[in-house]
Predict the structure.
Amino acid sequence: MSVASDKPILARHSRASGVPRCRLRRVFKVALMPWLVLLLWPLAASAQQSVGPTVVIGSKTFTESVVLGEIARLSAREHGVKAEHRSGLGGTRILWRALQGGEIDAYPEYTGTITHELLHDVPPGAGIAVLRARLKPLGIGITAPLGFNNTYAIGVRADEARRLRIRSISDLARHPDLKLAFSNEFMNRADGWPGLRQAYHLPMGARGMDHDLAYRALASGAIDAIDLYSTDAEIAYYHLRVLQDDLHYFPRYDAVYLYRLDLDERAPAFVAALNDLAGSIDAPQMRAMNKAVKIDGESETVAAANFLGVAPEQGNGGAFWKRIAGYTLQHLALVGISLILAIVLAVPLGVLAARRRRLGQLVLGLTGILQTVPSLALFVFMIPLFGIGAEPAIAALFLYSLLPIVRNTHAGLTGIQPSLLESAAALGLPPRVRLWRVELPLALRSILAGVKIAAVINVGTATLGALIGAGGYGQPILTGIRLDSIPLIMEGAVPAALLALVMQGVFELIERALTPRGLRLRAMA
Amino acid sequence: MHASHGSDKAFPDSAFALIHASRAFGATRAVDDVSLAFARGRTSILIGSSGSGKSTLLRMLVGLEWPTAGEVLCDGEPLRRESLLDVRRRVGYVIQEGGLFPHLTVLGNLALLPRHLGWNRARVLERARALAKLAHLHEALFDRFPAELSGGQRQRVALMRALMLDPSTLLLDEPLGALDPLVRHELQDELREIFRSLGKTVIMVTHDLAEAAFFSDRLILMRRGRVLQEGSLDDFRRDPADPFVREFVAAHRPLPDAA
């Protein structure tokens, strides 16, 4: 991996105007932004003075999209436009929202996805002219097709296909016991599995699986058929047969770039660069680039640069420790900022919960419910409120950190011996002084334990932040899964595990330093 | 005096008084319609078995429990929430095992309230030294934490903490209850000496009749939230107001004679 390694974690925030926003988002921003700005200031400042990119390109979490993103970025560079590529941001929804919200300026998309997923009232076979007219009111432009049709297809192992005599998708209906596994996006989209199943009257069920893992599962025989893209590099590598779409179910998926129309004024050279790419990439070329990255282990940047015949930036792929340091910094920012914000809110909430029993049950219940939201879902929920990047990830981690800290603050305070509370009251100390001088010090151990739990959990959960463009150790893990590269996965997983251990150690030291000797004595006695 | 002859002006001269005061916890009445006065400068002992309401009564005097009916008077004034901190600062309060804050040193415990009230370090230390002499506590222990003290030392510190502001009244809730017999005996002697020398109003709770009689001839025997009899141990023996009083006195068995 290389592309996303050195992108600044808070590069864009000045330009987010023009789009009407829901009130909740504003409330969240108003409440949290001062903190974020304050805490991120050093990072943001250093990121801004290096380069202020004029355009931001996004891409989805699969190789072809990242390669196309790199091609766009390098073309922009050749046209003298400063461009940043936020690679592997997520799925269609995330990219589409980010484009509309101005978080990104352009990203590679497919016509079939536009007609089926993004614009619901467009006929499936609509041409570019129709799409362009429909996208214009949204402030979005579209290039002419780049030259290849990467449609969905169904693949099975070639030997298995021979044995069962399966040639077309219709043939699948004769084998209801075949195990199908499709990418999560394919499982859910209208033109994916639900429609396919209906059109071909397929009797079997299917389950969702990460696309890159699905290839390996297919190769090992754990499953029998998966969805593919017709430009996938793995088709030859894994000896797969692509089944004929005999009913012509799948629409065309011509690759195009979508971009914000305000670029016509802001960066006309970039729009020209994108349009120059139209018709220049055919399916074999795309498959070759995909193979160069996924099978031969080249970086997307190199593959894209080779295709364009330009030089990639130097320093890509090298400087292992510098890369790790970059991830570490991003990861620490995610964990640290979310944790500090959580402490600021959760400790008072815990105090409140301990003081008022009824309210306390409510607070504990609500923070408990937050904890049950699947982490990936929580990350995605934050996107409409905070856009993409570090902020939504910090917000999600912040919400996750609340429960352990609130709960432990509550437990620490309610666990104080009643006789001590009574002594403090009988002395004639006002409630505020009792809280600060007696109750909080006595509950400190428990509170710190809660913070420690939150910190360690956050280190792990923050790896998911890469899915929404937050960077950190999740970045190499995600790329590693995409490229089927164990070393890359380790590049993120090992430091994440080490960081969790370090966190644990650091907090134990903090606990030792902050716990009064008198309490440690009691613990030993 | 016997229970229940109260009107608002009945106890103008007492440090504390209760007028038809009750404290109910759900259906149980821990203190049940009690009227009592505690004279200034005297030592009174609340005595009874566990669950008799004696501790609850003591706690009501400083607003740790609030009467569900009736009234508590402090220096002739009804106890009000607004004036509670004031009342508490005029009262020293010691509980079983001391109630010392484990995260603070001896000196930290002593200094907590005075420092909050704006005393400087020197003044705190001066007062602490004077009280250490009174309570027979070695000054070398000032930097120790409660966990590093013996039970007897802890009670001495608790007493010192209660006396820091030189309160007019001392309330003690089974202050010696958790100590072994030898230490307890020694502290009983010292405590009585301290009470005599200070001339403060003292109200102490105990379940031990011998200890009660040792400290005072004004005992208040309670049972099921009510006051059964007030008087000296001799009064209890000679003229028990209730069969339970006789029973309670008889239950304290003397040591067998030497063979």
Observations:
- The two ends of chain B are 43 Å apart (CA to CA).
- Chain B has a mean pLDDT of 88.
